[in-house]
Amino acid sequence: MSLKLEPNFHEPGKRYVRAFTPGDDFYESLIETHRDLSDEQSAMVNARLILLLANHVGDIAVLREAMQIARAGV
Amino acid sequence: MLRTYEYPKYPYRQPPEQKSGGTGRHRVVVVGAGPVGLAAAIDLAQSGVAVVLLDDDDTVSVGSRGVCYAKRTLEILDRIGVGDACVAKGVSWNVGRTFFRGAEVYKFKLLSQPDHKRPGMINLQQYYLEEYEVRRARELANLDLRFRNKVRAVAPRSDGVVLEVETPDGGYTLQADWLIVADGARSEIRRQLNLEVEGKVFSDRFLIADVLMKADYPTERWFWFDPPFHPGQSVLLHRQADNVWRIDFQLGWQADPDQEKRPDRVIPRIKAMLGEDRKFELEWVSVYTFQCRRMADFRQGRVLFAGDAAHQVSPFGARGANSGIQDADNLCWKLKLVMDGRAPDTLLDTYSEERGFAADENILNSTRSTDFMTPKSATSLNFRNAVLGLAGDHPFARALVNSGRLSVPTILTESRLNTPDAAAFGGDMLPGAPMDDAPIEEEGERSWLLDRVGNRFIALIFVDDPASVGPAQARAMAALASAPIPVEAVLVSPTGGAGPPGLRVWLDRAGRFAERYDTRAGTTYLVRPDQHVAARWRAFDAQAIGAALARATRNAEP
Fold first, then answer.
1. Which of B52, B61, B81, B427 has minimal CB crowding within 10 Å?
2. Which of A6, A10, A20, A39 best probes binding to B when mutated, by most B CB atoms within 10 angstroms?
3. Is there a contact between B400 and A42 if contact means CB atoms under 8 Å apart?
4. In this complex, is the C-beta atom of B424 within 8 Å of any C-beta atom belonging to chain A?
5. B516 and B436 Cβ atoms separated by less than 8 Å
6. Given this structure, which CATH class describes domain B16-90+121-196+292-366?
7. Can you give the residue ranges of every domain in chain A?
8. Interface pTM (ipTM) of the complex?
9. Could you say which of 3.30.1360.70, 3.30.70.2730, 3.40.50.300, 3.40.30.120 is the CATH number of the domain covering B439-552?
10. What's the CA gap between B393 and B373, in Å, rounded?
């Protein structure tokens, strides 16, 4: 498996009429997760989130690809 | 007066009730001759209902205000007789580009499907739309449009509404069976009736500048995040009619609205954007804030709220005027059936249900756009800039870029007026959906599906060969027209040709109807007067149509 870079957000049982909806659903939840947190707390939430998602993905080759893209652009 | 537009001044005439001192009783009074009130009054008058439309002013919208009109709205404007004027004057566009700092990160096309009569979006100054609607309204003998008639007080009763109206000649009293309130975001009537609007105020200010210039930019929507000429904020550029360009600058909450409107503040901002050499003239300037909120119920007995009076959204996505005109579209046929005694009063509850559902969708989308464009925390800004940074190279991030999710009509999936599918269908034309267009032909004359449906219930029956419809079935189809609520049955066919006597035949001349409505021989759609799908089946069944019609008008509860 290689890193998915095409739009991939979806939710079981949900039918989307507009292509932008699943991505917007995700993004709203992401911002909501940080609501009312200090910058420091948010940074910690982000770190924890990355660890959780990384474990879920599991495939270290995929994770390396993601880490490389993430770092290359900043 | 603007350089490109002279505001019309409509005549005031002394209202008959004011002259006589009597109290007129009218079937419907509409308050507010903006795009929504005018649409509602025209729609009702066209269907044979006498309407009084009151407005406190005697001209059209001052300033360009709502400038983007979406395909679905144009289809409604077609139905009320102003679509051609708007499209002829407006600027059609389909492409939007998004820039982050110096570079383009994302480009979208509004309408990927061919064979629709109307484009994805036109840009047109609101005063033109209102002028065309006023022109149409004045063609209708049963539409009594009264300028400089300001509503002072409203007293709801169980069987109607009493209004106190102020005119240059003094006050008078008006009674109405029904009142449609379309007096805008700061609705006086809503305030008088102590009705709450609940929602969110955004702490941000935006500057609108309408600029007159000859520019060779393509007719596209351009949106900048954090551009070099206006760092840290967003900017939107849009073309309107008459070489007027709309520029929106995000200013931030700290900005002083009075200061920011001064030409010596505005002109340098525009020069920074367009370059020192570009010649332009300032046409109109405004500073605005906005809210995303709605009334809990758009119906209060005999009083029906529509447009901004009922719900407000941020401007990003053009969901304000568009959704307001869609309110009128939804309301008028229901009100007419109730007034005519052909549907119970509870049909009007579904106006609030269906348009409330749409308002929620519009508020959700415009709130999300606003949150993306104006991040509220350092973390939120970080995520936004990360998305924009990845968007240049990676499709998944492009899909997350949100510079406004432009107005598309709501599919009323949850509506109690829909009859759920009993068979499987592909495509998007599910019960509750506003119809997709398709090119058709009737007796050699080319037309569009959406120009031929609407204003009444209609059953579209897809047949391979119209001549193959047997006489008994043809009689059952034609008989639908003599029910208390008539349904016109029309055959749609890939071959065309004559059908049984008394039935119209539409040729599906590009095959788009079959494709978009996933038809087979026998597939039947029941369509509401507002061009929404009420029900569909794989075979014609007059009894099923009757049941679905009863359900769509609340003459029977499921």
1. B427
2. A20
3. no
4. no
5. yes
6. alpha beta
7. 21-72
8. 0.97
9. 3.40.30.120
10. 20
